[in-house]
Each structure stands twice: as structure tokens, then as C-alpha cells.
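Quick one, C-alpha cells below. Sequence please?
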């Protein structure tokens, strides 16, 4: 066992990382690694590692921690195990997740591990239930907030050509395992010197020639610099899901090519493409596949046949139809929300506060709705370039009726309806409530249909195909809610919704003006994960069409 001393670069020692990086098996014939070392590894390091490897099997160096699954790394960071014990644990169990590890504990696999004494074993077992709740995967919203100062610094640095978050963060997944930014630069030392100075960096966990791992607000945030000549290939490699990369490699192999983290290579070893993602995909005969759909399902097939969708973008969004103000549980006034939206150049917005029975900390009363209408009228005068709709997010009550009378609901320009309670009814009962609400002529939109709470609570286990068919039938719009705790519908369900012929809308569900842009961005990313195009999105249409859709349903047309 060695520490990181003298090790210039983190080298992948994890079996699946090895497989990923070099296309070799988990039984670790390391030959190919040494024959074609990753560009940033120095030869001396590799020699030492090979000697150690041959002498003693798996080793783990501290600088390689960043390549361990976040779940396992957390055991070390929370002092449950030493680095030696973590290495032994990993080697003996090949666990890459908590689920694996829990199974290993259950099967008594930890008993035989020499480095793991009884006390450490007990700490691991004790940490497991805790880990399940405090899984070190970070919700998308938090991850994006953590990388923002890094991205801003990198993108404004004269030495950086471009910087992009990698992995699940770039794909817009609801939680992120490893938070890492890829930066293209020919001057890595200068760039990393700048980054360690950031006030957000609490501690440097590891720094090498090209990589930096920091502890930022108790979370690991990494910056990986790559040479501009191979930056596109590195970004492809660090963005795609395992399945996506597997499929790309298979496709490459079918044409006698090899795809690695440093480029696409011909059989004679000549590098055909590496500098941009576009070039890498083109060398494989594909158009650029958007990051959000690189999940290893059918995207490569569709790209090959030229039938990828034209995914919705933030530029397609004309308005935001779901947000809260101080009339319910929002932090900011109607005026502040309107001003925030005007700055985003929306054509229209809707202020949609909660109804009396909602579980929100503050709610709009029937009486309040009248006063709010007056306030909105005044705010409209200050923002003549943008239409402000007066809406509400009304709760669907237990019997499927709505929490405001029709007489009150009629006065709103647009009515959103939702369930807010976590449990208490069977899926059939919940579905019946939704269907009753969708059949109500005043309900235009069902918000956050699964009512999940990331990362704490799973969504309702409903028959979503029935829900979406009913939405299409009643011409009720289903929402893709961009609040990081919702991201609801998620990508997979959004894809089923549009396939069923339902219209979706993408909203921020914002409770404060300073997050309007960010939450809409998350909503758009989530929609893109669901293969949603602008033509599927209500709020990508002009205001007249939005009003027309509301009016048509109200009139039963
Ligand atoms: Zn809600
Ligand atoms: Zn809401």
C-alpha cells in the first residue's frame, strides 16, 4: 500500500474504469494500459504501479480515490475506513455501489478481508443505512450551484478554450455522482493555479499536472484539464453513460476503428478525430448527439438513421407558466418575479399561487385572490412588454374536486392543478383524482404529475400511460417542472407523454426571482432528456395559442 507521494497522476485502478478507459477486461491484464498509457500518466509512475500490481494485486493510491464510486469514497471521507481498508474492501467485494456493498455485508464477504478489523467492519455496517439517506449523489440543483463559480472562473480565464461540466451533470440527471468539469487548455498549471485561489475551495484533496480535486461546501468538485487537440474526445468520454460509450465503441469497431478517451483511431494507429465532439461523432458516421440523450438506449440507432429529434432549447421558451409569490409560499413579491421574468425577455408569464388546502407554508385565500388581481393589474402597467397572466396552482382534493369553487377559478386566466401529499391513497385513487381534475374544463395544466421529491421521495407509482392518454384526450397539458426537487415529469416519463400525444409545458415553479433562469434551464434539460421538441411544448407557442388552448378547453371545444 502506498500513499499518493510521488505519484504524479491518478491512474485508473478500478476494474470498470480500466475497462472504460482502455477497453480491457476487469480481470485486469494491465498490458494494454502500459502499452498505451493515458496521455497524462508519466512512465515512471506506471512502472512503479505495475511492480506493485504484480507483487500484491490491487492497490489503491489516494490520488486514485477520485476514480472510485462516490458511494465508496464517502466511507473513507467520513472516516469509516482507512484508505488501506477501502482498497481492500473494494478489491474483495468489487462493489461499485451501496447496493453491492450491502449485499457483500449480508453475504459475510467482509469477514475474510484481512485489512478490515472487526471495528472497521462494524463502522461500515453502521454507515450503510446512513449512507442510504445521505447518498453522496448530489441533487442537480446543488451540483449546478457548486460548479457555477468554477465554470465562471474557467470560462473567463484567458488560458481556457472552453469548460463544460461532465457526466451526469451535463446530461441533466436529477442527481449527480461525481462533480467534474472538463476544461480545454494548453496551460493546465496556470489554470489550476487560478482555480485553487477560488474562495469556494475549502481544501485541495488532490492536485496533479492536469487534474484538481477540491472539497467545496463538503462536496468533491473536480477540474480536469485536457489538451485542446484531444479535448473533444475527452468530453465525449466523460459525458456519455456507460451504455452510450459501449455502443459508440461497438460502432467504431464495426468499421475497424477504435474509440478511446483521446480520439478515434484507424487500424494503422492514425488519429482521425479528437479535437471536437462533432468531429468524433462524425468520424463514427454520426451527427452530434445532444448530451442529455447520451444514455445508451436508442439514440445511436436514431442518429445513424438520421432521425434524431430536434430537441427543444431554452431559446424556444416564450414564457413561464408556473411560479409563486408572497401571496403563497414564494419568497418574492409579484413585482420582483415579474421583473425577473422581464429580464429573461419572456413574452408572457403566469403567477400561480397555492390554494387554501395546500401543504405550503402560506396559501392564497379566495379573498386574497381578488386583492392579488388588483396587485397584478398594477404590476402589468410597469411591464408593458410582457403579458402577466393571473393563475393559480389549485390542489386536487381527496374526492377529485378542486380547492377553489368554479366561480373563483373562472376568474383566473389559467388554472394549474396538482396533488401535494406524499401518500395516503392507493395508486388507483390518485389516478382517479387526476382524471377528475383533467376532465374539469377549467384545468389547463397538471403540475409535477409524479409528485416526487428529489432525492428523498419517489414519485407516485401510477399507470402513467392511462394518465397521458387521458391528458391527450382532454387536452390537458402535463408539466415538466424544473424545480430541482421535482424535475417532474422526468425524461423517461416525458418521452412517454409526448408519444401518447399529450402536450407538455416546461416551467420553473420558482419561489424566488433569482432562480427563474436556472430552474427553467433544468426544466429544459429534463425535457431534452425526454426527447421533447418545441412543437410538443405549450409555452414554446405564442401567447394567443396559449390563451386559445385554455379557452378551447373551457368552452368544451
Ligand atoms: Zn406544486
Ligand atoms: Zn408550484
Amino acid at each position: 500500500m502506498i500513499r499518493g507521494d510521488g505519484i504524479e497522476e491518478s491512474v485508473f485502478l478500478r476494474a470498470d474504469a480500466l475497462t472504460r478507459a482502455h477497453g480491457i477486461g476487469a480481470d485486469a491484464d494491465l498490458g494494454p494500459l502500459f502499452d498505451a498509457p493515458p496521455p497524462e500518466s508519466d512512465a515512471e509512475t506506471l512502472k512503479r504501479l505495475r511492480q506493485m500490481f504484480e507483487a500484491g494485486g490491487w492497490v489503491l493510491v489516494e490520488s486514485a480515490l477520485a476514480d472510485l464510486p462516490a458511494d465508496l469514497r464517502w466511507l473513507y471521507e467520513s472516516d469509516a475506513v482507512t484508505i488501506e481498508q477501502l482498497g481492500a474492501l473494494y478489491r474483495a467485494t468489487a462493489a461499485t455501489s451501496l447496493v453491492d456493498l450491502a449485499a457483500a455485508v449480508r453475504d459475510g464477504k467482509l469477514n475474510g478481508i484481512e485489512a478490515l478489523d472487526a471495528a472497521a467492519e462494524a463502522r461500515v455496517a453502521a454507515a450503510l443505512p446512513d449512507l442510504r439517506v445521505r447518498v453522496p449523489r448530489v441533487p442537480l440543483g446543488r451540483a449546478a450551484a457548486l460548479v457555477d463559480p468554477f465554470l465562471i472562473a474557467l470560462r473567463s480565464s484567458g488560458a481556457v478554450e472552453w469548460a463544460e461540466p461532465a457526466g451526469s451533470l451535463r446530461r441533466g440527471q436529477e442527481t449527480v455522482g461525481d462533480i467534474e468539469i472538463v476544461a480545454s487548455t494548453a496551460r493546465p498549471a496556470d489554470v489550476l493555479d487560478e482555480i485553487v485561489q477560488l474562495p469556494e475551495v475549502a481544501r485541495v484533496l488532490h492536485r496533479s499536472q492536469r487534474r484538481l480535486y477540491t472539497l467545496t461546501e463538503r462536496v468533491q468538485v473536480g477540474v480536469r484539464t485536457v489538451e485542446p487537440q484531444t479535448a473533444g474526445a475527452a468530453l465525449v468520454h466523460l459525458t456519455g453513460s456507460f451504455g452510450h460509450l459501449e455502443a459508440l465503441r461497438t460502432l467504431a469497431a464495426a468499421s475497424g476503428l477504435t474509440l478511446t478517451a483521446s480520439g478515434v483511431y484507424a487500424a494503422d494507429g492514425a488519429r482521425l478525430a479528437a479535437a471536437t465532439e462533432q468531429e468524433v461523432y462524425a468520424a463514427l458516421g454520426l451527427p452530434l448527439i445532444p448530451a442529455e440523450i447520451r444514455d445508451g438506449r436508442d439514440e445511436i440507432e436514431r442518429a445513424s438513421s438520421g432521425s434524431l429529434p430536434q430537441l427543444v432549447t431554452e431559446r424556444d421558451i416564450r414564457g413561464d407558466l408556473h411560479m409563486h409569490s408572497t401571496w403563497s409560499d414564494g419568497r418574492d413579491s409579484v413585482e420582483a418575479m415579474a421583473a425577473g421574468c422581464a429580464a429573461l425577455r419572456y413574452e408572457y408569464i403566469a403567477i400561480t399561487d397555492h390554494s387554501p388546502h395546500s401543504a405550503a407554508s402560506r396559501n392564497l385565500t379566495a379573498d386574497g385572490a381578488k386583492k392579488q388581481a388588483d396587485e397584478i393589474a398594477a404590476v402589468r402597467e410597469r411591464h408593458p412588454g410582457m403579458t402577466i397572466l393571473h393563475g393559480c396552482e389549485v390542489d386536487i382534493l381527496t374526492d377529485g374536486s378542486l380547492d377553489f369553487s368554479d366561480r373563483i377559478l373562472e376568474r383566473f386566466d389559467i388554472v394549474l392543478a396538482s396533488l401535494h401529499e406524499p401518500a395516503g391513497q392507493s395508486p388507483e385513487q390518485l389516478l382517479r383524482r387526476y382524471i377528475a381534475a383533467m376532465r374539469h374544463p377549467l384545468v389547463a395544466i397538471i403540475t409535477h404529475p409524479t409528485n416526487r421529491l428529489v432525492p428523498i421521495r419517489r414519485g407516485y407509482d401510477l399507470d402513467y400511460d392511462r394518465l397521458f392518454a387521458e391528458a391527450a384526450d382532454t387536452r390537458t397539458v402535463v408539466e415538466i417542472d424544473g424545480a430541482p426537487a421535482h424535475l417532474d415529469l422526468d425524461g423517461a416519463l416525458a418521452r412517454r407523454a409526448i408519444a401518447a400525444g399529450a402536450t407538455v409545458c416546461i416551467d420553473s415553479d420558482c419561489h424566488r426571482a433569482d432562480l427563474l433562469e436556472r430552474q427553467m434551464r433544468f426544466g429544459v434539460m429534463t425535457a431534452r432528456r425526454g426527447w421533447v421538441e418545441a412543437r410538443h411544448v405549450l409555452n414554446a407557442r405564442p401567447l394567443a395559442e396559449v390563451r386559445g388552448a385554455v379557452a378551447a378547453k373551457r368552452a368544451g371545444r
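The radius of gyration is 26 Å. The chain has five domains: 2-63, 67-134, 138-226, 232-304, 314-554.
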